[in-house]
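Study this pair:
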Amino acid sequence: MHEDHHHHGHESPDQGSHDHEHAHNDPYPHSHSHPHTHGPVDIARIKTLLGYMLEHNREHTGELGSLAHELRHAGLDGAADTLDGGVKDFDRGNEKLAEALELIRGENP
């Protein structure tokens, strides 16, 4: 059995440093250590970005719904059904983004 240890360090201007240490014992068992250090979190930036992403995603789901409609009119019902399923998945994801945004706004008005 081979044991592999490695270390990853990451630096980014707005996220501080990240150290990741991993130990892997082949073939399956492994462990991870992820100490992180961060500077202050800019909640206003996160709220703005999350709001933008949510609106952007909603626009795309509308476009995808229109494409599904066109596919159905072209007789490609299987593709339309699959795309409609994807739109429903996007909608569920957007609901989670909206919920997170409301929680942030409620905890940090």
Summary: Strands lie at 3-12, 16-25, 30-33. The chain has two helices and three strands. The chain has two domains: 3-33, 43-107. The two ends are 54 Å apart (CA to CA).
